[in-house]
């Protein structure tokens, strides 16, 4: 059997999933088109059932289990999206499901997984630990392990998204999407390239990883999947230390380029999507848009950015929006040492108002390391119109004799 699934396999999978998944909309983005200098379309998998593309692979994998395998139940490990996909698919098929999730998993993902009827076990600090525990559970109980990305049926199920991309927009020249373990991009790359070849054309596929969890570039350099030491990232959905062996065999042959983005890039992308497209996505789901906005993707015709998921904790969304505003130069936190005498706070507020900025929070304290008895510290959170306006506001304060210090987020 070829490592790369055939177009027929993807088409058969799409037909089997027709009653399970939603055909999510594809919408144009004027803001992103202006940024790239070419038409940009958004594939809204954040509106998929369970809030992400993961239901495609999970449902297809479970649909191919034998009656005997179904009777043993299934077990999976996930930080949220795969968990929900497996839980919903298992519920629909009447299969008992146990899901291992790491401690600290976003509450909405935890509640949704339980809401689909799965038994959830919270244990371990990382998805890798949860996956090890799930594998041990499968060996101990006989349950079938449903891996989040390292299985041919998972890749084929995720690849049905690729067929939808060309059905919605046959003119696309480039597809940009995030990479975690590799199941989605492997399936999409195989499906779109097979369908494009049938139509007598070529399509570029560009993968995007969070720079703090970018295991694919060193794996490509080594010619095989390798482990990396990950660092914290807001993109928990693509926080994977090693790509799957099954998808990697496809990625190395069919993915044209892999780029990385920072957490600042992801936060800015989420903010642009929220403000310009009126769309809420999770950080991993914004990876493709982050690559476009940060200049990692060059214009070569119509580009499709896949918004792969929208499951985000409201508290994280609040923090990410604030971070995105700061990264865009629209939210400025400054500390200003002041002499402890009447009128100083009023004078600073007057200067900020003259600069056209808006104070949204203020803290005034006489306590702090290094302060003289006659000094106070004023800490202000200021809303501005962008980086140039922030610089103008700081210059206004400095010209008046104050010494504002910018507090990094």
UniProtKB/TrEMBL annotation:
Signal peptide: none annotated. The keyword Lyase applies. The keyword Cytoplasm does not apply. Its cofactor is pyridoxal 5'-phosphate. One of its GO terms (molecular function) is threonine deaminase activity. SUPFAM superfamilies: ACT-like, Tryptophan synthase beta subunit-like PLP-dependent enzymes. InterPro entries: ACT-like_dom_sf, ACT_dom, ACT_ThrD-II-like, Ser/Thr_Dehydratase, Ser/Thr_deHydtase_PyrdxlP-BS, Thr_deHydtase_catblc, TrpB-like_PALP, TrpB-like_PALP_sf. Residues 333-409 form the ACT domain. Keywords: Allosteric enzyme, Amino-acid biosynthesis, Branched-chain amino acid biosynthesis, Isoleucine biosynthesis, Lyase, Pyridoxal phosphate. CDD domains: ACT_ThrD-II-like (cd04886), Thr-dehyd (cd01562). Pathway: Amino-acid degradation; L-threonine degradation via propanoate pathway; propanoate from L-threonine: step 1/4; Amino-acid biosynthesis; L-isoleucine biosynthesis; 2-oxobutanoate from L-threonine: step 1/1. Its EC number is 4.3.1.19. It is an enzyme of class 4 (lyase). PANTHER family: L-THREONINE DEHYDRATASE CATABOLIC TDCB (PTHR48078:SF6), THREONINE DEHYDRATASE, MITOCHONDRIAL-RELATED (PTHR48078). In the native structure, TdcB is in a dimeric form, whereas in the TdcB-AMP complex, it exists in a tetrameric form (dimer of dimers). NCBIfam families: ilvA_1Cterm. Belongs to the serine/threonine dehydratase family. This is L-threonine dehydratase catabolic TdcB. It comes from Microbacterium paraoxydans. The lineage of its organism: Bacteria, Bacillati, Actinomycetota, Actinomycetes, Micrococcales.
């Amino acid at each position: 059997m070829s490592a790369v699934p055939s177009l027929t396999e993807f088409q058969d999978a799409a037909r089997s999933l027709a009653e399970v998944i939603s055909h999510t909309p594809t919408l144009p983005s004027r803001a992103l088109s202006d940024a790239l200098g070419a038409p940009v379309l958004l594939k809204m998998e954040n509106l998929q059932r369970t809030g992400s593309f993961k239901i495609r692979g999970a449902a297809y994998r479970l649909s191919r289990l034998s009656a005997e395998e179904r009777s043993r139940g299934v077990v999976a490990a996930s930080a949220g999206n795969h968990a929900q996909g497996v839980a919903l698919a298992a519920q629909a098929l009447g299969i008992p499901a146990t899901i291992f999730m790491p401690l600290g998993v976003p509450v909405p993902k935890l509640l949704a997984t339980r809401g689909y009827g799965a038994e959830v076990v919270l244990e371990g600090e990382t998805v890798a630990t949860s996956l090890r525990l799930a594998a041990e559970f499968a060996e101990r109980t006989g349950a079938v392990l449903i891996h989040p990305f390292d299985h041919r049926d998972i890749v084929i199920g995720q690849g049905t998204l690729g067929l939808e991309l060309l059905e919605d927009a046959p003119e696309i020249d480039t597809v940009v999407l995030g990479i975690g373990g590799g199941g989605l991009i492997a399936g999409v790359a195989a499906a779109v390239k097979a369908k494009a070849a049938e139509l007598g054309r070529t399509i570029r596929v560009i993968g995007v990883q969070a720079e703090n969890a970018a295991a694919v570039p060193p794996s490509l350099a080594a010619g095989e999947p390798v482990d990396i030491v990950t660092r914290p990232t807001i993109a928990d959905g693509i926080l994977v230390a090693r790509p799957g062996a099954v998808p990697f065999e496809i990625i190395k042959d069919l993915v044209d380029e892999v780029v990385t983005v920072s957490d600042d890039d992801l936060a800015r992308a989420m903010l642009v999507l929220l403000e310009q497209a009126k769309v809420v996505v999770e950080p991993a789901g914004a990876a493709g848009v982050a690559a476009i906005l940060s200049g990692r993707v060059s214009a070569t015709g119509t580009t499709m950015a896949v918004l792969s998921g929208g499951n985000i904790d409201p508290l994280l969304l609040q923090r990410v929006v604030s971070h995105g505003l700061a990264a865009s130069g629209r939210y400025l936190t400054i500390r200003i040492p002041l002499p402890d005498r009447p009128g100083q706070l009023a004078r600073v507020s007057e200067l900020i108002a003259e600069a056209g900025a808006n104070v949204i929070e203020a803290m005034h304290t006489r306590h702090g390391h290094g302060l003289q008895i006659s000094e106070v510290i004023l800490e202000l959170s200021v809303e501005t119109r962008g980086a140039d306006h922030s610089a103008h506001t700081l210059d206004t304060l400095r010209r008046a004799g104050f010494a504002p210090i910018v507090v990094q987020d």
